[in-house]
Amino acid sequence: MTQTPQPNLLIVGSMALDTVKTPIGEAVDALGGAADYSSVAASFFSPVQLVGVVGSDFPVEHLDFLSSRNIDLTGVQIVQGGQTFRWSGYYDFDLNVAHTLETHLNVFADFSPTLPDDYRAADYVFLANIDPDLQLEVLNQVTNPKLTMCDTMNFWIEGKRSALLKVLERVDIAVLNDAEARQLTGTLSTIKAAKEIQCIGPKVVIIKKGEHGALLFHNGRHFSAPSYPLETIADPTGAGDSFAGGFIGYLASKDDISEKSMRKAVVYGSVMASFNVEDFSLNRMRTLDSKQINSRYQAFRDIAFFDAWSDAEV
Amino acid sequence: MTQTPQPNLLIVGSMALDTVKTPIGEAVDALGGAADYSSVAASFFSPVQLVGVVGSDFPVEHLDFLSSRNIDLTGVQIVQGGQTFRWSGYYDFDLNVAHTLETHLNVFADFSPTLPDDYRAADYVFLANIDPDLQLEVLNQVTNPKLTMCDTMNFWIEGKRSALLKVLERVDIAVLNDAEARQLTGTLSTIKAAKEIQCIGPKVVIIKKGEHGALLFHNGRHFSAPSYPLETIADPTGAGDSFAGGFIGYLASKDDISEKSMRKAVVYGSVMASFNVEDFSLNRMRTLDSKQINSRYQAFRDIAFFDAWSDAEV
Fold first, then answer.
1. Tell me, what DSSP letter sits at residue A237?
2. ipTM value of the model?
3. 0.90 surpassed by pTM
4. Which of A23, B124, B133, B289 is the most exposed place for a label (fewest CB within 10 A)?
């Protein structure tokens, strides 16, 4: 009997030390970065091959934690004498808006991602938030992916628009938040924005709306996932990255990119984001287990249910 | 064979002539008001007994339209020589925010709702947006309602807080938008706000979130309904009233106030709101039919579906 090999999931993006203050408390030089958040969220579903860069100041216990989550660090460059990318910011009572205090690119300023040979055959590729030129370099190195997905942020929409458009022309899925989608397309309707992004290239567009859930646009159809009703959010940092990691980790684990699978994946992404914001940095991920994940997935079913449904409907 | 009598649905609230400008166009002295919007939306499910007041300037064709929708106008006072309540306002590109230009209470300044005798036995009562003292007067006149529900607005939360709290202590359901819920309770979390309102009195709280759908809080459980993905909104005026009318009209038509029925009712309310905003004033309601309503209800099922469900789950 031949066993189907587990598909490979490659994630590239920022690895960071974050200093964050929220109305609930603060974290100083804590593990952060889009690639760290998304890889750890994905790792609950699938092994991950990580590509990123850190300085020699990056605490070894963070690397140990990532390794312990079944994340392959062969693709992580450690620049001796270099400083890790650092972001500091705060959230006021409107937790939807991150206020940046300082950004130090440090080792990211000269980073050029080089994929280890065994990463090039990756089946699933997530280009987490990072300079779109670096996202293109990664796309150029993977040989035959089944599914590629990119995230981005306002900084690149403003400063690297043409490189970002090239990325969007080549990926299968774009995942971004509602403000970014409207900014990218210059429209005030999130629905119109999603459809216009589909015209640029990605067949599938996912809009993250924070406390209002997430939308999936696929094949002219529309799926709306609720959010989990948290009364208290400790730290919203990394929610979108955890969402994207949970989403693509679930798809890779099932090796199924049908619309039906993607709808479930959006909910698993929402589950991971809802856990992530319960604590600072990646702390909630350190104690999370699959039983808790499945229990919250069931809670999402209960939150969204209003009439008898059958599998036949999608 | 005894036939179960159709339950009576009573709606009280403002009847108005609105002048509205939006990025799409404008309407002048058009049929509006919370009671008109909610009664017409409800009338697609159940006959309505309407309580309100207009001046003798209120066009007879509006009364004819309401009558044609199976809305009983016995409870509508027509003040000879009086002027109908008028509101004028505009929406910028953020269609969630109504900017008021002028409000003329006119005949509403001296209005005291008096229920016709056959209205007092109403089974379902919706106190649409109106002075909470008038809402209390109506509550004092109904004899044995099965279900009472109230709406309100920022103006009464600021100016008539203690009367509003008395209303909330006495109704079964409060329906309000997210900003109003947070304002009423002085909290920044919509989830916390809903739970605090339940502590004031209503067992059920419904939060309207416009383009982000609606939330139902019931028995310690939480239901999130999506919104319909409209690319263009002609006029958001009356969306919340149409939602509430569709919601309570559906409940009255089924004479079922179980949680399961309320979840479906939230979706029917969302369906009615989504149609209402497609045109100015109540114009879309003039051509709407039950086939279109049922077709959009099915679309909501498709939008929310992500996994096999059975009726057993709620």
1. T
2. 0.91
3. yes
4. B289
